[in-house]
Write a structure and sequence with these properties.
The structure is a single chain. The chain has one domain. It contains three helices and no strands. It is rod-shaped and about 95 Å long. It has about 120 residues and is an all-alpha fold.
């Protein structure tokens, strides 16, 4: 036969279970926050890349491409792709630093949205 469970043993077991659940909840929250941070960073870099490529478009509009292998629709398409890649490269090297500012604003907006949701409940 097993020994009877006392109220203090039951309370201790409940406290232990609650501690395990709170640790698991904190780990899940940390993982969610890390995932949100990674998404915010990716979105910020993508925004910076698009911004840079759009800012570079006027620089290349005045360049003529006359010659045997230049000009035409193919070059127009290639030039826009080239500018996109320039933008991605500059964003990856963090040469302007716009992504850091955008990421901070994304995180701030997410925190404000979370606090608004919690306050509404």
């Amino acid at each position: 036969m097993s020994a009877p469970v006392t109220p203090s043993a039951t309370t201790a077991l409940m406290n232990y279970t609650q501690a395990d659940l709170s640790i698991a909840a904190q780990k899940a929250k940390d993982a969610k926050n890390a995932q949100q941070l990674a998404k915010a960073e990716e979105a910020a870099k993508e925004f910076e890349a698009v911004f840079i490529s759009e800012m570079m478009k006027p620089m290349f509009e005045g360049i003529s491409t006359d010659g045997m292998f230049g000009g035409g629709k193919g070059e127009e398409v290639f030039r826009s792709m080239l500018l996109q890649e320039y933008g991605k490269l500059m964003a990856d090297t963090n040469s302007i630093g716009l992504a850091d500012q955008v990421k901070q604003q994304i995180i701030l907006m997410q925190a404000q949205a979370e606090n608004g949701t919690q306050n509404a409940n």
